[in-house]
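Budget justification aside, the reviewers requested a transparent look at the raw inputs and outputs of the sequence design task funded under Objective 1. We therefore reproduce one unedited record. The lines immediately below are the structure tokens for a 104-residue chain.
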């Protein structure tokens, strides 16, 4: 008797283009940005606009980070050289070997 395990949709949660953990990062940046804008509003409209601009920049930075590093924490080695073997067609290889045997 087996047990069924619900594994979800096997897709990350997406909200306004942000995926998975970056949604929580953006919510944190927006929350801190709103609080900063409220504190900076003591200095007038310019302070509020500065706080909101920093918030918008933080969310933009999160979008760029998601594009650069991706959703999962995989180790990336950009200095690695990958060499893929050439696919060998068996019919061509066998035909070449048979032609060599008959020509001898």
């Amino acid at each position: 008797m087996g047990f069924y395990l619900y594994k979800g949709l096997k897709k990350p949660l997406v909200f306004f283009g942000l995926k998975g953990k970056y949604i929580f990062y953006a919510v944190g940046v927006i929350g801190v940005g709103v609080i900063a804008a409220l504190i900076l509003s003591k200095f007038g409209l310019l302070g509020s606009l500065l706080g909101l601009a920093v918030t918008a920049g933080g969310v933009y930075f999160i979008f760029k980070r998601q594009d650069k590093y991706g959703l999962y924490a995989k180790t990336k080695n950009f200095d690695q050289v990958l060499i893929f073997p050439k696919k060998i067609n068996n019919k061509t290889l066998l035909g070449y070997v048979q032609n060599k045997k008959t020509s001898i």
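The chain has a mean pLDDT of 76. The longest strand covers residues 14-15. Computational costs for records of this kind are itemized in the attached budget.
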